[in-house]
Write a sequence for this structure.
């Protein structure tokens, strides 16, 4: 007798019973619908804010940042970086390239 013939095999009867009732031999774990957040990491609920790249503008009193609006395509001026609400109603993030 060879080694393969001596090796115990899986019980074929159990698989036939499972396939007869339409079930699989894998265990099924129930999952609550409120706990299932499938895809939250890959597809967040809120899309990322558009980014506008600022151009520093030195005025006589302070440093301002001018940026082309991603929505209306005109230039807006801001006194700081970060999330901004433009006069046209657009909401975007004002940050330099490479700053994250």
């Amino acid at each position: 007798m060879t080694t393969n013939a001596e090796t115990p095999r899986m019980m074929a009867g159990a698989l036939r019973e499972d396939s007869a009732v339409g079930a699989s031999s894998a265990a099924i774990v129930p999952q609550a619908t409120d706990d299932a957040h499938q895809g939250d990491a890959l597809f967040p609920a809120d899309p990322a804010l558009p980014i506008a790249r600022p151009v520093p503008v030195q005025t006589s009193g302070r440093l301002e940042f001018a940026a082309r609006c991603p929505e209306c395509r005109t230039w807006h001026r801001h006194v700081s970086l970060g999330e901004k609400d433009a006069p046209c109603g657009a909401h975007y993030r004002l940050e330099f390239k490479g700053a994250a």
